[in-house]
Amino acid sequence: MTFSDWGGRLVPFPEERARRYRDSGAWSSDPTGRRLHQIATRFPDRPAVIAAEGQMSFAELDRRTDQIAAALIRLGLRRLDPVIFQLTNRLETVLAWYGCIKAGLVPVATLAAHRMHEIGHVSRKVGAVAHLVEAGLPSFDLVEFAREHAAGHPTMRHIISVGDVASNDRDEVTRLEDLGLDIDPHTAHAVVEQIAIQTDPSDVAAFQLSGGTTGVPKVIPRIHAEYWNNALLYADSLGWDENSRVAHLIPIIHNAGISCGLHAAHSVGACLILATADASVAFDLMIRSGATEVLIGHGHYQAVMTPEFDLAAVSLKRIILSGAKVPHELFERVDDGAERWAGQLFGMAEGLFTVTPLDAPAQARLTTVGSPISSDDEVRILEPGSETELRDGEVGELCCRGPYTIPGYFDAPDHNRDAFTSDGFYRTGDLGTITEIEGARYLSIEGRIKDLINRGGEKINAEELELLLLEHPGIANVAVVAMPDPRLGERTCAYVVATRGDVLPLKDVQEHLAQLGVAKFKWPERLEWVSSFPQTNVGKIDKKRLRAEIAAKLVDESDSRPIGV
Ligand code: AMP
Question: Coil, strand, or helix at residue 160?
């Protein structure tokens, strides 16, 4: 085993805590690829994935991903080479993920929606060697994008595609579907086992991305010792087993997708029903494939309330709601008090997950996000900006430490100094409080301190967007805030001061961001032109007031809209 700390850019867990987690079983010595193989050996014939493109048993998944891994090594990729992922939810994405993991490569969990601004930064930060893109997307040519991105890139050597590649691209692009078909499964497995032997439990398994609190997104290193176990803890806390069928609608490559969907289902031999964000298509697939579990994110709260989402038609046993406060009516709709149980989840790519315990009383299920999934998790509510712990019932910054919560972002020493307490608790930037209900303690989320917009689960960093908007010559000053949205929870509104008093149309501002290569979901969807910003008494822009102002304006506008519009 040859542990790599990436030239000092990876923050290790303190040895005393690492020992504690190994002793308690929270950490494993088996690398992630081997964990999948162990499950596939136990449940070879059970379905591992059902998606629109088809389905696969555990034995097929294990065999095919061994071949892909062996072919990636044969291509010249080396253990710990980072691979940028820009794929949507489809069967091949699962193959690509495990194929890379088994080859010891490090998937970088970017999104198909990201563009040059995001991909260029992250791929250079981690020294990405391969770019995995989905071909044939109707809205954007990711293969062409990968080619542009690779030009002049210091480390990028391979473009790998999933889906239909145009024939003129075939020389430059390797098709994932073709990888390793000629490699004998035993030979492929031997290559994968060699990689597993070389893997140290503290090696990076995957890089996730953080919405961040300042500037550009931060890179979150998740390691083999904890990553699969994080998912197993989640699956266990919900009582899943090999008969569970776990539907997932939001991006599978996100940490929630991996830890609550892909790895969580597979950690207990359950089947992943890989759906997409279109609620009615997803709902059909859930009915056809007998989903028993589903995670409903903020962006689908409204869809679930519509009559088309006929919950009685699906065999769901448990529905987990996550991402924002759960409205009473939504809870009542999804939890029928008998067959269908509803609970809540709070989680983050940096680590900590809390979930409603199966035996929690109704009040805890409805009003809290439950309790941490590992007995090794430590949670503190601190007075913001200090290390003073608050009492139960008081609202403060949620801080956490534990076996699967990172001890530091990748290559970000300055940021890490502010993001962690002196004794290594991660400052989440979320506001929370602990409530005791019938003798047990539960967490609830009461807002956030970090300056971001949560657009249906996608986080938009206000400072990052403000800096990009300020590059427009017509913009003298800008403050980006969340505005409430019935479907996505929040959307982005930019309060803007014009350079010469001339206001710009929204589409000009969006075009400016497109030119800068900024992902579309980050573009402001409304501009409010002002001559100056309200200030707090310490001289900062009063964003709280701006948020309240835009929220009130939206209410006024909807009240004055003629009926039927
Ligand atoms: P991510 O790392 O993208 O999974 O986002 C994590 C962040 O999403 C958290 O730090 C919270 O700000 C937010 N979040 C996740 N779950 C919830 C929830 N149940 N209620 C409120 N906010 C949540």
Answer: strand
pLDDT of residue 502: 85
Residue 216's pLDDT is 75
Contact in structure between 244 and 265 (CB atoms under 8 Å): yes
CA distances from 412 to 13, 133, 552 (A): 15, 27, 39
Any ligand 1 atom below 6 A from CB of 99: no
Confidence bin at 71 (pLDDT 50/70/90)? very high
For residue 445 and ligand 1, the question of a CB distance below 6 A is answered with yes
Q: Does 415 reside within a domain?
A: no
Q: What is the pLDDT of residues 412-450, one digit of tens each?
A: 999 999 999 999 999 999 999 999 999 999 999 999 999
CATH of the domain at 183: 3.40.50.12780
Q: How far is the CA of 233 from the centre of ligand 1 (A)?
A: 18
- Structural domain of 56: 26-374
Output the CA 458–ligand 1 centroid distance in Å.
10
Show which of 353, 374, 395 is a domain's final residue: 374
The CB of 514 under 6 Å from ligand 1? The reply is no
Atom index in ligand 1 nearest the CA of residue 350 equals 2
Of 344, 359, 374, the one marking the end of a domain is: 374
Question: Is residue 57 situated within a structural domain?
Answer: yes
Q: Which residue lies with its CA nearest to atom 17 of ligand 1?
A: 323
Mean pLDDT (the chain) is: 95
Domain total of the chain: 2
CA of 101 to the centre of ligand 1 (A): 26
Does 554 fall in a domain?
A: yes
Confidence of residue 212 (pLDDT cuts 50, 70, 90): low
* pLDDT tier at 387, thresholds 50, 70, 90: very high
Residue 281, pLDDT above cutoff 80: yes
Binding site membership of 430 for ligand 1 (Cβ less than 6 Å)? yes
323 touches ligand 1 (CB under 6 Å): yes
Give 345 Cα–ligand 1 centroid separation in angstroms.
9
Contact 13 CB / ligand 1 (< 6 Å): no
Q: 217-253: per-residue pLDDT in tens?
A: 899 999 999 999 999 999 999 999 999 999 999 999 9
Q: What span, in angstroms and rounded, lies between the C-alpha atoms of 372 and 153?
A: 41
CA of 428 to the centre of ligand 1 (A): 9
Per-residue pLDDT tens digits for 518-557: 999 999 999 999 999 999 988 999 999 999 999 999 999 9
Report the nearest atom of ligand 1 relative to the CA of 322.
19
Contacts 24+ apart (CB under 8 A), 120-126: 120/149, 120/517, 121/216, 121/217, 122/84, 122/209, 122/217, 122/219, 123/82, 123/84, 123/149, 123/153, 123/155, 123/156, 124/153, 124/154, 124/155, 125/219, 125/410, 125/411, 126/82, 126/207, 126/219, 126/410
Counting residues of the chain whose pLDDT is more than 90, the rounded percentage is 90
Residue spans of beta strands (DSSP E) within 183-324: 204-209, 219-223, 245-248, 271-274, 293-297, 318-322
**Which residue has a Cα nearest atom 7 of ligand 1?**
348
Q: Is residue 95 part of a domain?
A: yes
For the Cβ of 351 lying below 6 angstroms from any atom of ligand 1, the answer is no
